[in-house]
Amino acid sequence: MADCDALVRGLREADPAACAELCQRFGPLIHRFAMARLGGDGQLAEDVMVQVLVGAARSARRFDPRKTTFSAWLYGIARREIYRELRSQTRLKSVPASAQVPLESTKEVSDGQDLAARSAARLDAQRQTARLAALLSRIEFDVLVLNCVEQLSAREIGQIVGRSERAVHSILHRARTKARETIGPDERQRGGSDG
């Protein structure tokens, strides 16, 4: 926690080293969270990550360590930015521009593994994620991602979503139950063997 105190102090003083540390330590975490919430759109997740890090650096004076941890504060900013982005996006469901590759160059980007199998597995994972996102409430999906992907504690998740630890446990149980019902045993086994 002391290292986060120094980081916050540096951000409040607009220290370039603190900004670099913020990006290095928390950029990959925020990017992964955004990727999970934005259906694997890498470019959009990167845009969100940048907005979150810039916003955190600019508003570091508003962070109150008596109310929450620094990482929970960052995830809260990320969550708000993701929902702002989702509301503003009226784009067609298609392959993100960052993932599009001309057909003639597939041999160049292939690492020798079965490109078709890898692509099919990734699309299947995106389909499963979309099914879960449609089935679960916004808070259930967020809690599930924050716990299973980001591996945050119920206390930290509660700080991010504004719920008690006990409520987070209840939401997580409900989300896992719905997920199990949605993704049957055959699909879970197949997903485990492809990844």
CATH topology of the largest domain: Rna Polymerase Sigma Factor, Chain: A
Strand content: under 5%
- Report the strand count: 0
CATH superfamily of the largest domain: RNA polymerase sigma factor, region 2, helix turn helix motif
CATH domain class name of the largest domain: Mainly Alpha
Task: Name the structural class.
Answer: mainly alpha
- Helix fraction? over 70%
Shape: globular
Order of helices and strands: HHHHHHHHHH
Distance separating the two termini = 34 Å
- Report the uncertain regions: 188-195
The value of Rg in angstroms is 19 Å
Major β-sheet annotation: none
Average the pLDDT over all residues and give the rounded result: 80
Q: Give the tally of structural domains.
A: 2
CATH architecture of the largest domain: Orthogonal Bundle
Count every helix, treating DSSP H or I runs of 4 or more residues as helices.
Answer: 10
Which features does this protein show?
72% helix, Arc Repressor Mutant, subunit A, disordered C terminus, globular, Rna Polymerase Sigma Factor, Chain: A, mainly alpha, 195 residues
